[in-house]
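step=encode ok
step=design start
structure_in=
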C-alpha cells in the first residue's frame, strides 16, 4: 500500500507541478485577461482595528478636507464639501505617516471618502467591511478576499488568514489558536478561521515541505494510506444513508478529498517552498504585538512567493492590543478616545495612532520589497500584486462609515491607476462612490466579470450612480 502511494505521489507531483510554474501561470492568467492588460494575480488585505486617520493621509500642497477651517481634525464627521480630487503623487510630497512607502510612490494610490454607511457596528463593521453587507457578527455573504481567492487560486490555499487573537476591548493575553475575527467568509454561514500563532502558521504552511525528504515521504505515505482507508470506509457508510443525512454526510466525505488535494498541491510546490520558506526564530513565539505583526508579514510574503496562496488577509490587531514596544501604554481602543489629548511617552492620541499605523506600513513596505525582488514575467511579483491597507471600520473609532480610506500598494498589472491621490466627493454629494465600487474594481482587475453592484445598497444614495467599478481608478 505504501509503495503504491509513493508511486502515486511522485506521479501526482509531476502532474500537479505544471499549474504552478510561473511561466505557465502567467500564460493561464493572460488567456483570461482580454484587453486592458494582464489581470492582477495576487491580493493582500491588511485590515486594522479602530479606523485609519484620514487627516494625515493628505499629500502636502493639497487642501485638507478632513480638518476644520480652524485646523482641527474632524474625526468621524464626513469631509468638508469639495469636488473630486485626483492628482499625481509625483507632484506632491507624501504625508509623514507614509514616508516608509516612499520607495513605492509610483505604485501607491491613496483613496479617501468611499462610504459603507449601511454597515453598522459599535466598534467595527465586522464582515461588512469586506462583504458590504450589514453583518457585524454573522457572515451572510462572501467577502471580497474569498471571492478573489476563488478566482486566482492555483495553490493549496485559495485564501489564507492570520489574525491577532485576543479580547476585542481591553485586557487579556494574546491567544495561540485559530480565531474568527469576523471579517472574511467563504459564503453565508461559513466564516474563515484565521491562524493566530505565527509558529503554528509556519508549521501549517511550510512545515512538511522543509522536513527531511525521507520524513516527508513517510508522512505523506502514512497520511495517504489513512485517507484512502477512511474515504473507502465512509463511502460504504454513505450507501446506508438517505435524504438529508446522506447530503450532510457527503459534505463530511468531501473534507477527506479536500485534504488529499491540499497534500498533493503542497508536494508539487515543495522545491520552491524549500527555497523561499522563512527561517522561524524567537519572534514566532513572542506574544508582543510588534513581533507578532512582523512575523505575519514575513509568513505572508513567503506564502505568496512560494505559491502556497495568491490571497492573504491579515488582521494585525484588536481594540484591546497595547503596543508597549512603541512606548504606548494605552490600548488601541483608548487611543481612539484620546484624540489630541496626551496619550503616553510624549505623544497625544493622534500621534500614537499614527505610530501604530506606521508599524503596519513598515510590514507592508517590507513585504512589497521582497515581492519586488522576485522576477516575474516582464517585471517583478510586486508588479502583479495589490496590497490593500484598510480598517474594519470607516470611522476613526466608533461608527461613522461615510469616509473610508484605503491605501493600495503594488504594480496592479497595469489594470489600476497607481501613483495617485483620489478623494471622492462627500457622502450623498454628486460623484460620491462606495467601497462596493472599489471591490468591483478589484474583481475587474483580477480578470473577473464583475456584477453591476456588490453588497447591500445604501438607500440614502439611491439617486446617485453607483454602478460598476471606479472609473477613476481603472487604467
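sequence_out=
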Amino acid at each position: 500500500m505504501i509503495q503504491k502511494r509513493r508511486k502515486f505521489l511522485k506521479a501526482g507531483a509531476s502532474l500537479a507541478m505544471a499549474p504552478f510554474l510561473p511561466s505557465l501561470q502567467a500564460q493561464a492568467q493572460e488567456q483570461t485577461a482580454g484587453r486592458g492588460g494582464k489581470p492582477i494575480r495576487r491580493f493582500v488585505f491588511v485590515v486594522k482595528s479602530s479606523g485609519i486617520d484620514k487627516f494625515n493621509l493628505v499629500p502636502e500642497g493639497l487642501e485638507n478636507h478632513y480638518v476644520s477651517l480652524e485646523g482641527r481634525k474632524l474625526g468621524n464627521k464626513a469631509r468638508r464639501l469639495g469636488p473630486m480630487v485626483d492628482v499625481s503623487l509625483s507632484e506632491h510630497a507624501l504625508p509623514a505617516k507614509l514616508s516608509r512607502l516612499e520607495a513605492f510612490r509610483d505604485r501607491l494610490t491613496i483613496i479617501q471618502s468611499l462610504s459603507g454607511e449601511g454597515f453598522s457596528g459599535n466598534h467595527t463593521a465586522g464582515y461588512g467591511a469586506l462583504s458590504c453587507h450589514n453583518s457585524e457578527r454573522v457572515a451572510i455573504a462572501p467577502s471580497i478576499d474569498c471571492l478573489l481567492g476563488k478566482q486566482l487560486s492555483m495553490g493549496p490555499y485559495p485564501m489564507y488568514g492570520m489574525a491577532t487573537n485576543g479580547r476585542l476591548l481591553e485586557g487579556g493575553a494574546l491567544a495561540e489558536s485559530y480565531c474568527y475575527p469576523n471579517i472574511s467568509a467563504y459564503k453565508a454561514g461559513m466564516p474563515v478561521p484565521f491562524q493566530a500563532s505565527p509558529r503554528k502558521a509556519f508549521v501549517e504552511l511550510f512545515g512538511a515541505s522543509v522536513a527531511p525528504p525521507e520524513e516527508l515521504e513517510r508522512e505523506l505515505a502514512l497520511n495517504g494510506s489513512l485517507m484512502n482507508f477512511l474515504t473507502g470506509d465512509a463511502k460504504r457508510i454513505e450507501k446506508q444513508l438517505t435524504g438529508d443525512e446522506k447530503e450532510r454526510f457527503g459534505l463530511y466525505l468531501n473534507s477527506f478529498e479536500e485534504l488529499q488535494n491540499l497534500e498533493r498541491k503542497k508536494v508539487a510546490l515543495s522545491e520552491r517552498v524549500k527555497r523561499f520558506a522563512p527561517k522561524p526564530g524567537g519572534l514566532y513565539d513572542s506574544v508582543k504585538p510588534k513581533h507578532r505583526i512582523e512575523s505575519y508579514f514575513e509568513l505572508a510574503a513567503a506564502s505568496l512567493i512560494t505559491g502556497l496562496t495568491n490571497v492573504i488577509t491579515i488582521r494585525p490587531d484588536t481594540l484591546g492590543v497595547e503596543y508597549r514596544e512603541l512606548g504606548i501604554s494605552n490600548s488601541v481602543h483608548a487611543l481612539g478616545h484620546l484624540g489630541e489629548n496626551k496619550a503616553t511617552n510624549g505623544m497625544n492620541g493622534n500621534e500614537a495612532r499614527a505610530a501604530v499605523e506606521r508599524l503596519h506600513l513598515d510590514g507592508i513596505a517590507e513585504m512589497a520589497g521582497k515581492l519586488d525582488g522576485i522576477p516575474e514575467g516582464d517585471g517583478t511579483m510586486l508588479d502583479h500584486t495589490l496590497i490593500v491597507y484598510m480598517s474594519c471600520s470607516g470611522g476613526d473609532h466608533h461608527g461613522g462609515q461615510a469616509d473610508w480610506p484605503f491605501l493600495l500598494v503594488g504594480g496592479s498589472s497595469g489594470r489600476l491607476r497607481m501613483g495617485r491621490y483620489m478623494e471622492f466627493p462627500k457622502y450623498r454629494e454628486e460623484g460620491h462612490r462606495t467601497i462596493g465600487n472599489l471591490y468591483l474594481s478589484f474583481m475587474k482587475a483580477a480578470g473577473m466579470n464583475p456584477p453591476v453592484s456588490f453588497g447591500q445598497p445604501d438607500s440614502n444614495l439611491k439617486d446617485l450612480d453607483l454602478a460598476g467599478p471606479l472609473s477613476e481608478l481603472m487604467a
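step=design ok
step=annotate ok -> Residues 213-238 form the longest helix (26 residues).
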